[in-house]
Amino acid sequence: MELWYTETYREGTRFSMKVKGTLYHAETPYQVVDVVDTDDYGRVMLLDGLIMLTDRDEFIYHEMIAHVPMLAHPNPKKVLIIGGGDGGTLREVLRHPEVEEAHLCEIDDKVIEASKEFFPAFHSAFSDPRSRVFVEDGIAFIERSKGQYDVIIVDSTDPIGPAVELFEAPFFTKVSEALRPGGVFVQQSETVYGNADIVRDLFGQLRSVFPKVSGYMACIPTYPTGFWTFCFCSAGRDPFEAFDAERAARIEARGLRYYNADLHRGAFALPTFVRQVVRGE
Amino acid sequence: MELWYTETYREGTRFSMKVKGTLYHAETPYQVVDVVDTDDYGRVMLLDGLIMLTDRDEFIYHEMIAHVPMLAHPNPKKVLIIGGGDGGTLREVLRHPEVEEAHLCEIDDKVIEASKEFFPAFHSAFSDPRSRVFVEDGIAFIERSKGQYDVIIVDSTDPIGPAVELFEAPFFTKVSEALRPGGVFVQQSETVYGNADIVRDLFGQLRSVFPKVSGYMACIPTYPTGFWTFCFCSAGRDPFEAFDAERAARIEARGLRYYNADLHRGAFALPTFVRQVVRGE
What we know:
Oligomer: homodimer
Number of strands of chain A: 12
Largest interface: A-B, 45 and 45 residues
Helix content of chain A: 25-40%
Distance between the termini of chain A: 50 Å
Strand content of chain A: 25-35%
Number of helices of chain A: 10
Radius of gyration of chain A: 18 Å
Shape of chain A: globular
């Protein structure tokens, strides 16, 4: 018997991976969590049937969501990740020796459980003495965290289901209040390709809260269209002013495979049709 | 009845597009040429069952393979495209007012025929008085073209079938001889992702011929992994030294949707794992 998992990107587009077997399945109050083993991508975690990460290309998403804000900040001592229960973003954040505390707030403990059991690459993140995991709603958590964090990263699912409020202005206001002076905020912001209205609206809501908003991109083979955007927001800091190439080189040398000093700037060079959406043109 | 076209990227990965119907089918001495109409991508041309272009995202590939070399050269008067029988690259080259002659050498006239019939976006390229089409083998053509061209672009299929010799050092030597002094050469160079050995070998062969070789990238949703590379080669010119932002802005204003002045540099900022392959590390 041959098993294939198929994700329907749009009604007329499908992406399929040959599956060796199912390793984990849980129906939680928030979503359905699955881990499958595949021929081409190693282990794959799916939430509500959407590919969240694969052994093979998770480094792209996790390096790019973490190191851009971490190196945009001159001294990121205290970091918050909302979502990201798999631990991949946490692992990248903890590569930075400046970090004294890294908090992870994940609503669904089954995501953490599945990751700990099936993704050994992320184990070190959870056992690092600087990391602390909170299993609760990110919005409630951030409301009582005023002025606490140098870097906040929202590593959420798509703006449907449990994550929908994480893509709206009231949440962004709370994020801005949870930042320390000079702090920066990054969130995954979907693909523009076929989603232009959602991304345009998201950046518009971000601009209504943050004085500085820009977008950057990475190419992620197992996400729909490959074409993934991230938003970078702050009260005034731009992504480059505190960037230190020597610090970046030290992080790169710790085994990074995607992010590097050239890309820190290059990833903000957006294709014209993406730039128009990000700028609300 | 629901029709789906499925491209098998690797044995364990498939990409499928819902198809309204087949518009064109030809079995030529070189390959099988198909044009299908799809729900999500408009019309799609396939060669030997591999997606070559879609109405929806062809602009990415064609803008990036054409405008990077065209703007790296200070005055590209005479341009050669090998392959590219669809006319998309030719259309982009002809946006440049400096061009006096644009030659297209395509081995398979059925590709040209199919494009002229089903891809009206490319019509203008073929009817432009500066363009001239040669239906013949690119290698024979380039042998008798010594010192002729400011820019040469190889817009070929994958290094299997009729295009295989276009990825080997003897051909690159002929390309280097067909360039005028100061000329530049660009070729599509596949995805690194899952193809690292092929791409590493290709760049190694290019470096054995051209003193300057670098790589750049674009994200193309309907190509396997999305992660597409291009090689930029010359006897000495780098991609940036002749770059003129005002000239780029004039080209951008002619309706480009991907390429822009920021990306001219940003596209050369390669992810680490791509850079290692391109440099042969």
